[in-house]
Design brief:
The structure is a single chain. By secondary structure, this protein is an alpha+beta fold. It has one domain: Glutaredoxin (3-Layer(aba) Sandwich). The protein is built from 5 helices and 8 strands, in the order αββββαβαβαββα. Strands 1-8-7-4-5-6-2-3 form an 8-stranded mixed sheet. Helix 2 links the parallel strand 4 and strand 5. The longest helix has 17 residues. The N and C termini lie far apart (43 Å).
């Protein structure tokens, strides 16, 4: 197993414990989380929910992209979802919204069922090998990365009360 993959479950366990600790733990942590702001969005091999390969590099460089590292069992992700849905309603025609499901205590089938049950208007991808988690230095679920049209990271954050609309305005330039 890759050393980076070993840290993910430990960080995930800590994040889950923090999410259960109370309201103070729900505050967003923005900037200096995961990838540095200004860095190029990395390539990573993931899959769509039908198991077909997708390279994240093909998603960036056209228009801004919001990536959330996400899981069906993540309480912070569930709490963040209304903010992401509101941002999608406002910016969905100018920004690609992508949910990257982590393969921790999850299957591609469970992610597919969840996406179908909730009818989210986002693209869901499956990070079966943890390649995207490692490439994007995802410290936990609810980790959001916003990439501008030039392929540069303009925002990173974790937690349920991230200001997604402000992050997207940075990416769009307005």
């Amino acid at each position: 197993m890759v050393a980076g993959a070993l840290r993910w479950p430990l960080a995930l366990g800590a994040a889950t414990a923090l999410s259960l600790a109370g309201p103070a733990s729900l505050r967003a942590q923005e900037g200096d989380v995961g990838l540095p702001t200004g860095s190029a969005a990395p390539a990573a091999a993931v899959q769509d929910l039908d198991g077909r390969p997708v390279d994240l590099a093909h998603l960036v460089g056209k228009k801004p992209v919001l990536l959330e590292f996400w899981a069906t069992w993540c309480p912070l992700c569930a709490a963040l979802m209304p903010r992401i849905q509101a941002a999608h309603a406002k910016f969905g025609n100018r920004v690609d919204f992508v949910q990257i499901a982590v393969a921790v205590n999850e299957t591609r089938a469970s992610v597919q069922r969840h996406a179908e049950q909730h009818h989210y208007p986002f693209r869901f991808l499956w990070d079966a090998t943890g390649a995207a988690v490692r490439a994007y230095q995802a410290p936990t679920t609810s980790y959001v990365v916003v990439v501008n049209a030039a392929g540069r990271v303009v925002y990173t954050g974790t937690g349920s009360d991230q200001d997604i609309e402000a992050a997207l305005r940075r990416a769009i330039g307005g």
